[in-house]
Amino acid sequence: MKILPKPHDFRLIAAPYKGNQEEEFAYTEYQAKLMKPVGRILRSLKAENSIFSVADLVGRVARYRQDLISRYRCVPKVYALKLDVKSAYDYLPIDLVENVVKVKLDKHYPLDNICVNQYRVVRNKYITSKRCSVVFNSSLEQKIPKANNGNIIVQNETPIVLSKSDIIDFVHKQLNETSILYHGVTYCRKNGVFQGFQLSGVFFDLVYDDVTEFFRNVIPDADKGETLVLRLVDDFLFLSTSKLAIQIIRKLTCRPIEKFNLHINHLKTKYSETELQFVGLNLDLASMSFTKGIDTYRTDALLMLSFPKLFRRMEYTFATNLNSPLFDINASSQENVEENIKNILQAFTLRFISSYKLMHKRENCLKADFDLFVKNLIDLVSTRVNLQSMDLTYPDLEKPIMGLLQSKRITFK
């Protein structure tokens, strides 16, 4: 059992108890033969329009933006509402989870037996491999993963076949018999699911896919085409050109929604007609584009053996961050992309400064190495964005970096 701090509370995380060496072996077998296959089947029931990351969120809003522009030839007035569900895992009704799983199993898989085939994708070039799986209702429906780029697909082990009743029984036991062991005493839940348990997130997503659909259905038909309802874990974002649609959602969520035992944290509810902060991003409603502030990046120190190694590590992380649609001119306005570029460059400069203060006493940092580091970062940006079309030059991006170094009195050899 772990306790993680929150701004005004704490979060209880229940870590799996594997027992002694003999029990751990049995637990590993149990995971491989039952828990993981059931998990794969349940994940296949998730709604296709679900979002699972900030990148998904930005991409969905970008498509909504393009739809509005194609309809109005500009971004019209958009109203926004943000909702946060209070203690969502703790209030999740156990009987509702079982019912949702049963209904979705019947909907997705008309036959009783469900198979999980596991494969290993072998990458010849790097002599590495990764696992993948296929869930299907009968041998006639099976889809074998496609090999590409010279990869080889190998069946990993014998297919696992589970009936719907097997899955329902497993889900029932996990919901009703999973407990916390504390000083030799076990504590079961009367309601909700334990965060940290392997399948809690899947149970939660299956129910909250229905919550998302419930919100979509209460919006008037005339407004559905221009209303976007998004959920990322327990945070909801509503965007609409209709103020009435947003007002309906606000009124509906003033009280708990008994069907889902859903309670809204009204302290975190936010309505806006100009801008809104959602999951660490700032959404400008006038342009329907996101910006990511400097304070949302990690700026803590990295302790490496040398400055060249530090620079290589930071360049790799920088390149990974640039893959975000926040830097896609087709997904955001030019002004927002420019702000995102400047913010990430300054954030990485601040992280270098934190690392420098930790490392410079044992090793000198050469100016030539730092200059090359800055050049490499800006070159990475130029491969992602056409700087010339944005009227941005190397000095434009370098100047704020050097300003930060001077303000922190960073010197080089």
Automatic annotation (TrEMBL):
Gene Ontology biological process terms, A to Z: telomere maintenance via telomerase
EC number(s) reported in the record: 2.7.7.49
Top-level taxonomic group: Eukaryota
Coiled-coil ranges (or none): none
GO MF entry, a single one: metal ion binding
Chief subcellular location: nucleus
Domain Reverse transcriptase span(s) in chain numbering: 1-283
Any one annotated GO CC term: chromosome, telomeric region
Keyword NAD among record annotations: no
Catalysis: reaction(s): DNA(n) + a 2'-deoxyribonucleoside 5'-triphosphate = DNA(n+1) + diphosphate
Cited InterPro entries: DNA/RNA_pol_sf, RT_dom, Telomerase_RT
Pfam families, sorted: RVT_1 (PF00078)
Uppermost EC category: transferase
Alphabetical keyword list: Chromosome, Magnesium, Metal-binding, Nucleotidyltransferase, Nucleus, RNA-directed DNA polymerase, Telomere, Transferase
Subcellular location: Nucleus; Chromosome, Telomere
Family per record: Belongs to the reverse transcriptase family. Telomerase subfamily.
Function as written in the Swiss-Prot or TrEMBL entry: Telomerase is a ribonucleoprotein enzyme essential for the replication of chromosome termini in most eukaryotes. It elongates telomeres. It is a reverse transcriptase that adds simple sequence repeats to chromosome ends by copying a template sequence within the RNA component of the enzyme.
Protein known as: Telomerase reverse transcriptase
